[in-house]
Amino acid sequence: GQCHGCPKGHYCVSGAEQPAPCPNGTYGAEPRLQSAQCSGACSKGHYCPRGSTISTQRPCEAGTFNSAEGGTNANACQPCPRGTSSVAGASECSVCAAGFFLRDLSLEPNQANCKPCSDLDGAECGWNATLRTIKMQSNHWRLSDRTLDIRKCDARPDRPPDDPTPCIGSAGATYCASGLHGPLCRVCVASYHHFD
Question: What's the CA gap between 79 and 116, in Å, rounded?
Fold first, then answer.
């Protein structure tokens, strides 16, 4: 037989016939480790199964988090509280989930501060939405990306369903169809034109 150095992800005690895998929750980044502590505990936001070679061996999935070091399996990753979400490998839920938005940008996104998008008639909230990034649905308008005052903007009360609305919706501050601007998209950009 030959003598071999202890490989990464394992440790070898003196006189051992076989290398032992680093235990769950730890990792072995270097060869020739000599204790079950290996190189240390798995990083927050991750978990490390037996024999892991890096502290970020398995990231928690997006929408989950692990705030402690030494996660041993996927159960170390907890679901984010309602209204919040996370990127993969997160140690906290630091964004609003789809269907929620952060109203006050001076606050941290958390369960108390991520508000339901269903509270806003005519708005859509994607993942990590804020007051400034919510999207207006077609036929809805708001003065700016800093207001919650969303208005339905039918061109006329008797408008047939196939008559296009002047309010096209979108994210940001461009809510009007081409050639229109102003309140409820009823002001023509071109001089000497009127909205009908």
Answer: 18
Question: What is the DSSP code (8-state) at residue 124?
Answer: E
CA distance 89 to 79: 12
The phi-psi region of residue 17 (left if phi > 0; otherwise alpha if psi is between -120 and 50; otherwise beta) is alpha
**Per-residue pLDDT tens over the stretch 5-62:** 899 999 999 888 899 999 999 999 999 999 999 999 999 999 999 999 999 999 999 9
Q: Please, are residues 47 and 25 in contact by the beta-carbon 8 Å criterion? A: yes
Containing 11, the helix (H) or strand (E) segment is: strand 10-11
Q: Which residues contact 146 (CB under 8 A, 6 or more apart)?
A: 131, 132
**Residues 135-150: b if buried by 16+ CB within 10 A, e if exposed:** bbbebbbbeebeeeeb
- The neighbouring-strand residues paired with 58 are 47
Ramachandran bin of 154, using left for φ above 0, alpha for ψ from -120 to 50, beta for the remaining angles = beta
Instruction: Look at residue 181 and give its three-state secondary structure.
Output: strand
pTM: 0.79
Task: Give the residue among 62, 57, 45 at the shortest CA–CA distance from 21.
Answer: 57
